[in-house]
Each structure stands twice: as C-alpha cells, then as structure tokens.
Specification:
The protein is of the alpha+beta class. It contains twelve helices and twelve strands. The strands form three sheets. Strands 1, 2, 3, 4, 5 and 10 form a six-stranded antiparallel beta sheet that branches. α8 crosses α9 (212-235). The longest helix is centred in the C-terminal third of the chain and has 24 residues, at 212-235. The radius of gyration is 23 Å and the shape is globular. The two termini are 33 Å apart.
Length: 334
Amino acid sequence: ELFDAIRLFWQPKILQQSLINMKKIVYQVPISLNIAGGYTQQKGSAIISSNTSESLKLTVISSKKQQKNPVEILVKASKLVLGFCKKNALESKKISFRYKIKSSFDEKSKLIQSSLLTAGVASFFEIYLNRQATQQELIEVLQPELLNANNLIRGGFSFARKEFDFLTLSASMDINTSAKLLNNFYFIKIDQSILNESQINQHLDTLLDEQRSMAQKAIRDIDKNTKIMIDGIFDKDNQKISEAVSRTQKLINKLGFKNQDELDILEDLFRFGVGKSVANGEFLLFFCNNNDVAGLNGFLNKKGYNFLNLDSQNKLSRLDQECFETEEGIVMDE
C-alpha cells in the first residue's frame, strides 16, 4: 500500500497539481466600445463609452520562471503598478510572473487592449502588494492611460473630452435607465479594413484645410447629437435616440467616412432600426427602435452577422478559480 501511494504521488498529473502556486489571480474584464465621438474625438468631440456583453479573462501567477516575450500591454501594466507604489512610498517587490489570456479576440487586437491593461493592473496590485486594489486606486493608475477606465472598473458609462493636447477630462456618467432600452443597442461587426487614428486625423486635417466651414459645422453637430442621444437614454425616448443616431451617421458620411459594407447592413436592417459607425469603422452601433429584439437576434443569426450586446452592468470582477502551473504554461480549471 505504501509503494502504491508513492507511485501514485509521482504520476505526472499529480505532480503538476502539486505545483499550484499560492499567488493565483484571475480577473474578468468586459470589452468596451465607444457609443459616441470616436471619429472626431481628437477634434474635441465628447466620447461616451460603455461595456459590452463580451469579456476577456486574465490569469496571472507569481512564478520562479518569467514568461518569455510577454505581451507589451502586460509589461506596461506591471510598470504602472510599480510606479504607483514608488509614488506612494508603498513597499513592493517585483516578482516574475506567467499568465494566460482567454478571449474570443486575438491578444494583440486593439479592441481588447484597454480591457487587458485593466486586468493586468488589478492583477499586479495583488502580486506586488499582496492585496486587491480599491476602485479608486485602479482609477488613479488607469485614468491617465484610458478614456474608458471608469466604465471598465465601475460599469455604467464614461464621458471624456479632449480639451487640450495636454488635458483630457473624463468621468463616470450615472445614467439611470431601463435594462429593456439598453437591450436595444447592438454592436455589429463590419468586415472591412479599419482606419487607424492617424489616418482619421490626417483626413480630418485635410478636410479642415480645404472645407473648413463644412467640417467644423459637421464636428459641432456630431457633438450636439451625442448629447441628444444621451438625453434620449436618460429619458427612455426611442425616437430621440433614433434621430440622433441617424443624423450622426449622415454627418460621419459627410466627413468622408463612408463605406459600402455599412450601407448594405443598414439597408438590410432598416425595418428593425437605425445605426452609425463606431470604433473607427470596425463596428456599427445599431439601435433597435421597434423593440423587436427577438426578431433582430434571429435575423442577425440567420444572416451570419457577428455582434455584441451593450451591457452597462458588466464590469471588472475577481474570479475564484483554481489554476496550476506546468512547464507548458498555466492550466485553468473551467
């Protein structure tokens, strides 16, 4: 019996499970998207962001062996926490770590970088300080880096506006509205080449040089319609939201950000509601103004459209999940 017990202990699986690390940290963070202001944010337009129903999961463990070639955003998260510790004279110790990212998006996708940075900062607080960060500490570290830090950490909506090159104001928005209304918002994936911020700004600069009056008015009107849309969400007013979304899309087209994929989808979904381009053209924010959510879901699935739902209640959360380290990396119990 003693021999059997010793043999059982040395079986590889049992040995791997004996390597469970005392510092195992798992955070889940939603994917966040702008619902307003993305194209013209560098020209002073308000940016409103909220979370989607989609989340990523990050597992980080302290380890004797540093993971090779970690993604840059997690290296940045580590440096931000160490910088916070130094600034506040908090005793900390840099520790080697290994990690695992679980997401339906590629870990280098721009779409998940703010979520990954948030999860990384929360994780390194625990690794370096041996305690969970408060929401206020996370905001202090992340707000200079992320316009959507408030909604990622607290849920709800975030407001941000670039006042100067050196100053961007941001805050949480306490929008008390119905879950039924928010269920009418969809982010529909667009299959097209995505413009980066540099290309968008270059286009707008050219437009401001060549058609200054038109471009300035369009940018101001986009800002006005952002306010109308938010007022509509506050007031639970489908018509106000619909008109603001529709007018904003026309203004985006007027500024030259028009593509056939968006026009085709909007035509396809015309009987369900209205939409506008967000996330630099990667998604279409669609508002189902006839409240036929079941019908729209069925139609989107039948047509094969990929989409995310708006979920303002989704936010950063700490998970209790077992994981263990092997030579190949981290294994998590699902």
